[in-house]
Amino acid sequence: MTVALLVGLGLLVGFLLGLLGAGGSILAVPALVYLVGLAPREAIPLALAVVAISATAATVPRLRTGEIRYPLVAVFAITGAIGAVASTALGARLSSAVTMLGFAVLLLVAGSRLLRPQTDTGTACRIPSTGKVNWRRCMSRAVPVGLGVGVLTGLFGVGGGFLIVPALVVALGLDSVSAIATSVAIVAINSASALFAHAGTSGLDTGSVIAFAVPAAVAAALAGRLRLDAARTQRWFAYLLLVTAVAVTAATAIPLLR
User: Cα separation of 82 and 167, whole Å?
Assistant: First the structure.
């Protein structure tokens, strides 16, 4: 039963990550805790391992398309690694209840953010008159976002794509296709960095990683080739996040009140 659950979760995580450049990882930890029965300290490294593998698989089909903005990947990767290493030490000191309640807040923020309309794009990375990139202005916005995403990755085991994609579109002016492609590359590197930081805090079960990661990688690679109605898919995913936030809050808070 546990293997079947891990395979199913892997397919869901990989599909969402490959399609939206975000999403699957934020569901992985609650699912591993409440459906599979792992403790948060076990679930977070496992989620990071799977997200790193599936995001890499989702990146591969896009390497030759010209959609990935590599300078932004580098900035997010460097700042994200710093944030992930710093927050991992803090996360190791938090109780399971505090970690999961924090995760519920993160789910609420992510769901609400994804439901917010994004009709305009920013111009921080583009000079309209020339079409060239203003890297000084672009990087000044990318660095703090990268640090914030890294902190969330190390603390909660999420890839942070739900923040990266809107930041790339709204703040930095990338089109949605480039934002998704760039996001999955950033998520792959950030998750690997956070997993390295977690290496000394808990061990990984190889069988669980394989059962979770292989279907996630396959689903991510296949979904990376799809071009579905992103707005509708994102909206339904946001509803799922909000429902999950309520469920995580109830499952965590009710035992504390007894």
Answer: 19
pLDDT in tens, 181-226: 888 888 888 888 878 777 655 567 778 888 888 888 888 778 766 6
Q: How far apart are CA 142 and CA 135, in angstroms?
A: 10
Question: For residues 37 and 9, is the Cβ–Cβ distance under 8 A?
Answer: no
Q: How far apart are CA 244 and CA 249, in angstroms?
A: 8
| CA gap 224, 190 in Å, rounded | 19
Q: What's the pLDDT tens digit per position in 7-33? A: 888 888 778 777 766 666 677 788 788
What is the DSSP track for the chain?
Answer: -HHHHHHHHHHHHHHHHHHHSSSHHHHHHHHIIIII---HHHHHHHHHHHHHHHHHHHHGGGTTTT---HHHHHHHHHHHHHHHHHHHHHHTTS-HHHHHHHHHHHHHHHHHHHHS-------TT--TTT----HHHHHHHHHHHHHHHHHHHHHH----HHHHHHIIIIIT---HHHHHHHHHHHHHHHHHHHHHHHTTT----HHHHHHHHHHHHHHHHHHTT----HHHHHHHHHHHHHHHHHHHHHHHHHHHH-
Tell me the pTM. Answer: 0.73
Q: Residue 247's CB: how many other CB atoms inside 10 A?
A: 14
> 112 with 120: CB under 8 angstroms?
no
Residue from 39, 47, 42, 64 nearest 6 by CA: 47
